């Protein structure tokens, strides 16, 4: 029964984390695109918007990778303490 509860909790955490990441990425993209449009004016902003989206997605990927790295380090430290 406890394993079943752990799986439900993990699924809930994964869903919450996914929704949070999507929300943050969409806010970054929206903010960055507005900055590009306001600074470029009425010029050809298509390539600028595409570049902005790619840069924003890269920033989000780095944030997610950093979070997973921190989680990995915390788990390793916790496991070392439990062995001692």
Defining key terms:
single chain, 84 residues, mainly alpha
Largest sheet report: none
Shape: elongated
The number of helical runs is: 2
Mean pLDDT: 77
C-alpha termini separation: 29 Å
Overall structural domain count? 1
Portion of residues in beta strands equals under 5%
Residue stretches low in confidence (pLDDT < 50, at least 5 long) are none
Radius of gyration: 19 Å
Counting helices, strands and paired strands, the structural category is mainly alpha
Structure summary, number of beta strands: 0
* Approximate helicity band: over 70%
| N-to-C SSE string, H for helix and E for strand | HH
Walk me through what this model shows.
The chain has 84 residues and is mainly alpha-helical. The chain has one domain. The protein has helices at 2-40, 46-83. Helix 1 (2-40) runs antiparallel to helix 2. The mean pLDDT is 77.
Draw up the topology in text.
Elements: H1 2-40, H2 46-83
Briefly summarize what is shown.
This protein is mainly α and 84 residues long. Helix content is 92%, strand content 0%.
């Amino acid at each position: 029964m406890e394993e079943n509860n752990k799986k439900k909790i993990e699924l809930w955490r994964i869903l919450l984390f996914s929704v949070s990441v999507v929300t943050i990425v969409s806010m970054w993209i929206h903010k960055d695109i507005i900055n590009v449009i306001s600074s470029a004016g009425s010029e050809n902003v298509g390539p600028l918007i595409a570049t902005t989206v790619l840069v924003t997605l890269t920033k989000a990927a780095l944030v997610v990778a950093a979070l997973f790295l921190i989680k990995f380090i915390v788990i390793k430290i916790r496991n070392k303490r439990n062995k001692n």
